[in-house]
Amino acid sequence: WKWGATSGQVVAGGNGQGSGAHQLSYPYDVIVDKERDSLIICDHSNRRVVRWPRRNGTSGETIISNIDCVGLTMDENGSLYVTDFGKDEVRRYRRGESQGTVVAGGNGRGNRLDQLSFPQYVFVDRDHSVYVSERGNDRVMKWVEGAKQGIVVAGGQREGNGLTQLSYPEGVVVDQLGTVYVADDENDRIMRWPKGATQGSVIVGGNGRGEQSNQLKEPIGLSFDRHGNLYVVDWGNHRVQKFNVDSTVEKLIRVALNAIWFFFLRTLNIIKEFISMKE
């Protein structure tokens, strides 16, 4: 969907539900591989990850098979990270790898810090720390690169609608300050958890399940653009909503402006002191 358009263009699938190379079945997540000018798609019901040409593609190529994938992402090195809710793990696939390496979970289903339970979506930061939402444990975990266990960064206080709780968390995004944004599916809201916080705050939704502009219905995905606008996949309402929230971009701009203003005042005081000394 181009900006301002009233209709979209099919770029993958669109040939009926099925398992053929030209078909998809319940695709859950998609990313753009700019280096190879292609789309990488979690073809959920077909238990595969497929690559489709970004332009004029008529069929896809299976790059990972026999995986219960829900979410995927890619780091700056081109390594692919995929959740597997059947094996309760997240695997990293470097370019050219077919087996991949477990980077989160992989120790059976459970609620220990070294376990995952029905992992959903995944985010990787600049330090290659992996953030994964867990439907079974109602939490978001952070696994530092090379770690043997994770850290709870959102939820983990059993299922509920309190500010310390999540209910079936789905999409997750983390900004440069370490703030976690998560689609709180069953609570029909988007939550923000600052780094180190023991509770979050509602930034979108939380006004009951519905189709009004300030309501959501089972949101599953979220993303920010470079202007700090938040886009939410409002699954139950079959729409994507755009919101303007106080994001990292705005915070960084505000910090920069404050620094400039402080420097200006300091310089002005130094000049005043210099003038008074001359007098």
Could you write a compact summary of the structure shown?
The protein is mainly beta. The chain has one helix spanning 248-278, and strands at 27-33, 38-43, 48-53, 61-65, 69-74, 80-84, 89-93, 101-105, 119-124, 130-134, 139-143, 151-155, 169-174, 180-184, 189-193, 201-205, 219-224, 229-234, 239-244.
Structure description:
With 279 residues, the chain is mostly beta strands. Helices cover 11% and strands 38% of the residues. The chain folds into 2 domains: 179 residues, 6 Propeller (Neuraminidase); 28 residues. The chain has a 4-stranded antiparallel sheet with strand order 1-2-3-4, with no helix packed on it. Strand 1 and strand 2 form a beta hairpin. The protein is globular, with a radius of gyration of 22 Å. It starts with 26 loop residues before the first strand and ends with a helix.
Helix and strand element order:
EEEEEEEEEEEEEEEEEEEH
- Proportion of residues in β-strands: 35-45%
Oligomer category: single chain
Helical residues, percent: 10-25%
- Which structural category fits the helices and strands? mainly beta
Q: Number of helical runs?
A: 1
What is the number of beta strands?
19
Global Rg:
22 Å
CATH architecture of the largest domain: 6 Propeller
Strand order of the largest sheet: 1-2-3-4
Task: Give the biggest sheet.
Answer: 4 strands, antiparallel
Key structural traits:
4-stranded antiparallel β-sheet, 279 residues, 19 strands, mainly beta, 2 domains, 11% helix, Neuraminidase
What is the secondary structure topology, with strand pairs?
Elements: E1 27-33, E2 38-43, E3 48-53, E4 61-65, E5 69-74, E6 80-84, E7 89-93, E8 101-105, E9 119-124, E10 130-134, E11 139-143, E12 151-155, E13 169-174, E14 180-184, E15 189-193, E16 201-205, E17 219-224, E18 229-234, E19 239-244, H1 248-278
